[in-house]
Design a protein that fits this description.
Blueprint lengths: L4 H7 L10 H37 L2 H44 L5 H23 L10 H23 L6 H41 L7 H31 L9
Helix pairs in contact: 2-3, 2-7, 3-4, 3-6, 4-5, 4-6, 5-6, 6-7
The structure holds protoporphyrin IX containing FE (HEM).
Length: 259
């Protein structure tokens, strides 16, 4: 049968082989969900930080309120649910990585111990960060002081997590996501614990201001400040987070010291 050049180009250069075992399928589905949701989440975070916040500051109050009331409910919906999906898919993937390392160590139960330590350390770190981001007077209201303190908490927690996960069978991915995933967890808790709780009140007040001409309550600037601080923390944490995500499978720089 004659084969024309087009058919030849299409079908003879590449062969398709789809790994069909359950783990490969689960992993590729999780990775894909993780990327789509992570891109949506960080895309909106960068939009807030690079575009929306600086432009909104320059707008006249009435106009700004109308834009805020129109855009924010939809933006916040995608923002917070993209965060949940990113972290859930990432967590499930991380459990597969931990399970593999624990099985290689000949002790499958280790997976739960590692996961437990990981959660505990990052939740404790978040409790401190949450406290630091409360409205305060004096030095704790200074952005640079807060940045230094949050930076210190994050570095100290990363160091602790690495020490707790150090095991001869610990893979680079396991250690790298131990830090990057922790940063993602902190970011998610910031979104739900600070940003969304404050934004939903700000949205209601702004809608009332637009519809009925009501004045914003006196606590509005304090809430807006908290949203700003939490959003700055997330913005800056996203850069090391992406480094550790990318390094997990492509830049093997972490391994446990074996004596
Ligand atoms: C803002 C949040 C996050 C974003 C944008 C993000 C992004 C990414 C990206 C781009 C990769 C692909 C790396 C590569 O293949 O080069 C990745 C991989 C991964 N992420 Fe995340 N991630 C986030 C949060 C998390 C969280 C909270 C966890 C869970 C603990 C997590 C666990 C993982 C795992 C297990 C991998 C696969 C690593 C590997 O294949 O070795 N991620 N992430």
């Amino acid at each position: 049968m004659p084969v024309n050049a087009f058919t030849y180009l299409l079908f003879s250069q590449v062969s398709f082989h789809f790994p069909a075992d359950a783990t490969s399928l689960e992993q590729i589905v999780l990775r894909w969900i993780h990327f789509v949701a992570g891109t949506t989440w960080l895309g909106l975070l960068y939009y807030f930080n690079f575009v929306s916040t600086p432009v909104m500051k320059r707008l006249e109050t009435d106009f700004r309120n109308r834009i805020f009331a129109a855009f924010m409910p939809r933006l916040m919906w995608y923002f917070r649910w993209a965060g949940v999906l990113t972290v859930l898919a990432g967590l499930r993937y991380y459990m597969i990585i931990l399970k593999l390392a624990a099985t290689n160590a000949g002790e499958p139960g280790l997976m739960w111990r590692w996961l437990g330590w990981w959660f505990l350390m990052w939740l404790l770190a978040y409790a401190i960060i949450y406290f630091l981001l409360q409205p305060a007077e004096g030095a704790l209201n200074n952005g640079w002081v807060l940045a230094l303190l949050v930076g210190f908490i994050v570095v100290a927690t990363s160091w602790l997590v690495l020490s707790l996960l150090a095991h001869p069978m610990a893979s680079n991915a396991m250690l790298s996501i131990g830090i990057g995933g922790g940063l993602g967890l902190i970011m998610l808790l910031n979104v739900w614990g600070i940003v969304w709780r404050a934004q939903k009140r700000l949205i209601l007040w702004t809608e009332a201001a637009v519809r009925e001409g009501k004045l914003m309550p006196p606590e509005a600037p304090r809430l807006a400040r908290r949203v700003y601080l939490a959003s700055q923390v997330n913005f800056w944490l996203s850069f090391p987070l992406l480094f550790f995500m990318g390094a997990s499978d492509h830049y093997p720089f972490l391994s446990a010291i074996v004596d």
